[in-house]
Amino acid sequence: MKRLALLFIVAAVVIGSAVVWKRYRASDVHVSADSVASRVDQLFARWSGPDSPGCSLGVSRNGVPVYERAYGTANLELSVPITPQSVLPAASISKQFTAMSILLLANSGKLTLDDDIGKHIPEWADHGSRITIRHLLTHTSGLRDAFMLQGLAPPREDGADLNEAILKVLARTRGLNFAPGTEFQYNNGAYNLLGSIVRRVSGQSLRAFADANIFKPLGMTHTHFHDDPGMIVAGRVSGYHRDESGLHVTSSENGIVGNAGLETTVGDLLLWEQNFADARVGDHALLDAIQTPVISTGWSETSSYGFGVEIAKYRGLTTIGHGGGDRGIASYLVRYPEENFAVALLCNLDNIGENGNATALTQRVADIYLAGALAAPKSGGSMAAPVPVPLSPEQLTRMVGLYRDLSNDMVGRIFMRDGKLMASAGAGEEPSVELTPVGANRFVVRGTPVSVDFVPPSHGRSQEIHVSGDGPKPRVSQLVTPFGPAAAQLGLFEGVYSSPEVEGIFTLAARNAGLVMEIPGRANISLQPVFTDAFAGAIVGVVKFSRDGRGIVTGFTANSDGARGLRFERIKR
Predict the structure, then answer these.
(1) Which 3 state secondary structure label does DSSP give 262?
(2) How many other β-carbons are positioned within 10 Å of the β-carbon of residue 419?
(3) Which helix (H) or strand (E) holds 366?
(4) What pTM value is reported for the model?
(5) Same domain, 365 and 227
(6) Please, what sign has the CA dihedral across residues 243, 247, 249, 254?
(7) pLDDT tens by residue, 74-102
(8) Domain that includes residue 168, residue range
(9) Spatial separation of the C-alpha atoms in residues 193 and 197, rounded to whole Å
(10) 222 with 268: CB under 8 angstroms?
(11) What gap in Å lies between CA 92 and CA 256, rounded to an integer?
């Protein structure tokens, strides 16, 4: 489910050899610190062995670190354990530090949040709409996914700085996914661009600026933006991914910063969290701006985005946090401001915890330490445990098929597996989620606010599905008639194509009852037919061809989550 990204405690005080448990409010249950620590340890027991990657966990209350412990192994090849002092990549937690850098520059009068991007990036092309720094901060710019565009373009071999390359991609593009300010769409490229703006405005790299203005003043001595992949960092861990064949060492290091690139410890992150109360870096007005809800994320009814942080609710308490994930890493940093309570979690396994992320692990920690402050779990509503109703295989089979989103031509598949109804966001079957029936035509995705209603066909209209809970409004998709072009028909789409927004030449060839897109220096992209004159594949999403008055194919438009309406013209048959 890619509508997406992500995102994501404690009252035991350990000072030296003394362990103190103190009730924070009258409703708290008084338990020993040893008992609390034991329950937290149990949460991480499955990752605590010498043969497993794991996590570093830090917790603070009222600005005092009350719990720091590590589980698992930092490097499986050398049998080095993770410690609370281990340095791990924080992935998208980086965004709030990039936002702070921008706000510090605004406070010093070197820019304003309502500056047009072109004021600081002179090579910025006319995108048809005014895009501001504020739009970048709030994921409302409408910019296409720079990393997706780079993945389509032939690889560069000139040794250019990747951050500068992303800037050039975004500066060159002209089309937008939507009018700036009208939607929320999580955008890593926008935050990478903010890092470049810091460099252009301050005359320092994001790494140097953040070090001088944030990390050193707060005593975050083990934190930096890792803009040099070859840099040696003491205490840094290796990252791992687990699949059906076992564990594999992996890395996401590439020198890209702004949207990611922060490397840090849990102790340093807790120092940052306390700054929101102490205001040692930035004043209270600036810090309030970071954590003020600006726009609904659509991820849940209570989730909004500020500047680099998500403002949400968990069991009645406000949370201000952000998750991070990449190859080999998972992280979550969250603060409960009403309790002056924070938790930092950094892991060196990317598919860790519930639903493959670290967020739920921090919530389980909160369940233990904030039991007296948290509201009781919901007994009803979309997030409650669904009560399934039995449906026959025949009833479920009626739902099966490929569905087309009427708003953007994106497709999703409903299929059966082991007697269960499954859904995938794409023409294939992976990745997929189970749909749990709660009525004859109504299904839910367990553990999420997502519900799916099947509307039977009527009056010449195909069967529809209405999906609610994963965006600001329900999405409607219709069952499509299978499209199986013969070899001669496939040949009509063959040719050479180019796009003014993606540098390079793209060759389409008929192969295996579908098409293949050949990009010099990149892996081929297989395109399978989905509906008339339309194919679907990785990265590009749904490719919909256009024809002239004689029926000759003239080009195609690619629609994906990251790039809507990306146009390619046919330049050679």
Answers:
(1) strand
(2) 7
(3) helix 359-369
(4) 0.88
(5) yes
(6) positive
(7) 999 999 999 999 999 999 999 999 999 99
(8) 109-201
(9) 6
(10) yes
(11) 12
